[in-house]
Amino acid sequence: GAGVSQSPRYKVAKRGQDVALRCDPISGHVSLFWYQQALGQGPEFLTYFQNEAQLDKSGLPSDRFFAERPEGSVSTLKIQRTQQEDSAVYLCASSLAGANVLTFGAGSRLTVL
Amino acid sequence: GQQLNQSPQSMFIQEGEDVSMNCTSSSIFNTWLWYKQDPGEGPVLLIALYKAGELTSNGRLTAQFGITRKDSFLNISASIPSDVGIYFCAGPNSGGSNYKLTFGKGTLLTVNP
Predict the structure, then answer these.
(1) CA B18, CA B14: separation in Å to the nearest integer?
(2) Looking at residue B93, what is its pLDDT?
(3) What per-residue string of b and e applies to A40-55 under the rule 16 or more CB within 10 Å gives b?
(4) Which chain A residues contact residue B44 at CB under 8 A?
(5) B70 touches chain A (CB under 8 A)
(6) Rounded CA gap, A50 and B85, in Å?
(7) How far is A110 from chain B (nearest CA, A)?
(8) What is the 3-state secondary structure (H, E, C) of A82-96?
(9) Could you tell me which chain B residue has the CA closest to the CA of A99?
(10) Which chain B residue has the Cα nearest residue A34?
(11) Rounded distance between C-alpha atoms, residue A107 and residue B29, angstroms
(12) How confident is the model at residue B1 (pLDDT cuts 50, 70, 90)?
C-alpha cells in the first residue's frame, strides 16, 4: 500500500485482557519496527524485524509482549494480560533494508482500564 | 543509553513568526532526523541530516547537523497555522544497533492565527 496501515486505531481493554495490534507495512519494505509512545513522550523502540526474522526484541517491556511477522509482511504485536501501564500509542514503522529513515503508521492507541 | 534533549518543550508563537528549536545529546550521532507529529497521527519525516555541518532545507524548514555531532537545530520561517504539532529529533543508536532510533521528548508548537 501507499503507507503503513495499523489497526485498530483505538482499543480499550480491561486489565488482564489480551490484545493484538496489526501492522501492514509499505509493500517491499524489508524492515519493520514497533515503537511505544507514552503520553507526552517520544516514541521508544520495542522490536525490529528484517523480513520474517525478529532481529531485536530488546525493547519489549516484559514477556507479556510478543511480536511476529510470519510471512515477512504483516506484523502483529500481542500484549497478554494487559496492565494499566501498557496504555500508550503503539506505532509501527517500515523502511527499506539498511535504511534508518522510517515511515510510521498512524498508531494504535491502547487504553487499559 | 543515548538520550536526546529537546528545547524548548513548548512554544507559542504568532502566525508569520520564525521558530527555532534544538536538540542536544551527550553522545555523538552520525545521522539526525527531524519528525513532525500531528495529533492522532504517526511521526512524519521532515528532514534527514547525514554529515556534520550539513545545512538542509525543505520549504520553510531548515535544519543543521552540528559540527560536534552532538546537536542539531530546526528552524521554521514564516510560520503558518498548519505548522502546529510536535517536533521530534531522532537519531540512530551507535554501534551495531543503528537501526534503532532514539527520540527526544519533542517540542510542542502552537501557532496563533
Answers:
(1) 9
(2) 75
(3) eebbbbbbbbbeeebe
(4) 104
(5) no
(6) 31
(7) 12
(8) CCHHHCEEEEEEEEC
(9) B99
(10) B100
(11) 27
(12) low
What is the C-alpha separation between A68 and A49, in angstroms, rounded? 8
**Residue A58, all three cell numbers:** 530488546
Q: What is the pLDDT of residues B19-65, one digit of tens each?
A: 999 999 988 998 999 999 999 999 999 999 999 999 999 999 999 99
Q: Which three cell numbers stand for residue B79?
A: 510560520
The grid cell for A57 is 526484541
Copy the grid coordinates of residue B78.
514564516
Q: Which three cell numbers stand for residue B62?
A: 531548515
Distance CA A19, CA A31 (A): 23
- Side-chain-side CA neighbours of residue B38 (13 Å): 9
The amino acid occupying position B50 is: Y
Q: State the DSSP code for A18.
A: -
